[in-house]
Every structure is written in structure tokens, then in C-alpha cells.
Amino acid sequence: xxxxxxxxxxxxxxxxxxxxxxxxxELRRRFRRFAVPMTxxxxxxxxxYVLLSTYAPDLMSTEVFGNVNLxxxxxxxxxxxxxxxxxxxxxYSGRTTDPIADEMRERLEAHEFSAxxxxxxxxx
Length: 124
Description:
The protein is mostly helical and 124 residues long.
């Protein structure tokens, strides 16, 4: 591994070539496959909680046990679901996106995305 003070900085062209690569397109696709449905699900769940709190106070004040009502349990459920989504994402990314990202980072650091400069090729 090259020491940090001996590394050549990456050019904008190298970043663009990495961004235009099929690997990066696959990385984005895999990320979106998790992020979009999970975001929609969580926002729906949050909106349901807010709407119930606003328009169904009798339902939300239903005692479940002792002084704990349904509203408190659903509110705590917001925190629990946030941690659950985080855990799911960590596991998902470790299996599906991190390997691609790691390989792309190694290629970038090795300057494998740099195009050979021929006559008339723009310099970055």
C-alpha cells in the first residue's frame, strides 16, 4: 500500500469514469432497492402515528396496562423501528453493497479508472 504522502490525487475525470461504470450503476440499484421501500414504509408508519395522534385521541389514549397507553407504545415503536431499520441496513449493505464499494475504492486508489491519454485527450 502506498503511503499517504506518496499517493497521487484522483482527477475529476477518474471520478466521472467511476461514476459512469457498470459497477457504480449496480451499486446505486442495490442501494435504492433497499432504501426506497424502507423509506416509504417508515414514512407511512410515521404518518399513521401522527394522524392517529391528531384525529384519534380516544384510540391513542386506550390503556394497555397501568398508565401505559397505546399512544406511548406506538411512539416507542417509532424508536424501535428506527433501530430495526438501521440493523437491517447494516446487514443488507454488508452483503450486497459493501463488496462492490470496496472493490471500486480499491480500483480508484489504484487509478484503474483513469483513461489513457492520447493525442488531443483533455488533461484534467
